[in-house]
Design goal:
Distance between the termini: 40 Å
Number of domains: 2
Largest sheet: 8 strands, antiparallel
Helix content: 10-25%
Strand content: 35-45%
Shape: globular
Order of helices and strands: EHEEEEEEEHEHEHEHEEEH
Length: about 290
């Protein structure tokens, strides 16, 4: 039965490399790909790009996860019987998730659907399709880094002593040289796609809080378009006996909106587009 439900919308920062144009050009190229060429094979997952709809801020894209199962059970309300059925021919079940790519802010807002495509799969599908179907995209790479809740920096500052910091950064949208610190110099000189770094204090000591890896992490967290993929901080909090660990993947920023859904639980495109628009406008007010 169709109805309305609450959905979580997670926020990311887009990182594109080796693209022949702007984000608008990237998704214009995707929109021009024929539908029969929009199915991406990602290991045992199949992701289909169903719709690419342009609006004033960017594009809304509908992704479908194509399910391998063809058998299902039906229930007859008249005689209370059940039966096993099979989808006919080449029919398959599909679960939808929606993404909003906001060009000006390089923001990705992604609808979380438990059985639907996830953000990483959706981006991989765009990359695979454009590499194979569009001119100039042979080396194209598209990824996204999670927007981390502001309280993560506040939690870092609350530590009495920091024992371990682990950070994982992706290559920035333009190049490593956009950031002026030794970590990004290392990424540039290495020709890296991502850099992982870990620092551990000597026994009974704490890491330098004013310089080094702690400041690199805080700088990355405060950047408007951060390319921090993941960070873990372990240390001692005041008035706590044991060690405390905080992780960015547990503080991924999201908002909740109510959307209209069909009987299968997939959100209506108009409803989810309105939710996306509201989220983008709310974020613009806070910039």
């Amino acid at each position: 039965m169709a109805g309305r439900t609450n959905r979580k919308f997670y926020k990311y920062t887009l990182q594109a490399h080796a693209a022949p144009g702007s984000y608008d050009d990237i998704f214009s190229s995707l929109r021009r790909v024929e539908r029969q060429n929009r199915l991406a094979e990602l290991g045992d997952r199949r992701i289909f790009v169903s719709d690419v709809t342009r609006n004033e801020l960017g594009v809304v894209v509908r992704f479908l996860s194509i399910q391998p199962e063809t058998d299902f059970t039906t229930f007859d309300e008249t005689d209370f019987s059940t039966s096993e059925e099979t989808l006919p021919g080449n029919k398959r079940f599909a679960v939808a998730s929606h993404a909003y790519f906001v060009f000006g802010t390089r923001r990705l807002i992604f609808e979380y659907v438990r059985s639907g495509p996830k953000a990483e799969e959706a981006l991989a599908a765009v990359q695979v399709i454009l590499r194979s179907q569009a001119d100039g995209y042979r080396q194209f790479r598209l990824s996204a880094t999670p927007v981390v809740e502001e309280r993560f920096v506040r939690d870092i500052d609350r530590f009495e002593r920091i024992r371990v910091v682990k950070i994982d950064v992706a290559e920035p949208n333009a190049s490593w040289t956009d950031w002026d610190d030794p970590l990004h110099e290392l990424g540039e000189e290495s020709g890296a796609g991502r850099v992982t770094l870990e620092a551990t204090a000597a026994r009974g000591e704490g890491l330098n809080r004013r310089n080094g890896i702690v400041q690199v992490l805080k700088q990355a967290l405060r950047a408007p378009n951060s390319h921090l993929k993941r960070a873990v901080v372990e240390g001692k909090m005041p008035d706590e006996a044991g060690a405390r660990t905080i992780r960015t993947d547990r503080m991924h920023e999201f908002d909740t909106r109510t959307v209209s859904v069909d009987s299968g639980g997939s959100a209506d495109v108009l409803s989810v587009s309105a939710a996306f628009q509201g989220l983008a406008e709310d974020e613009a007010k806070n910039v």
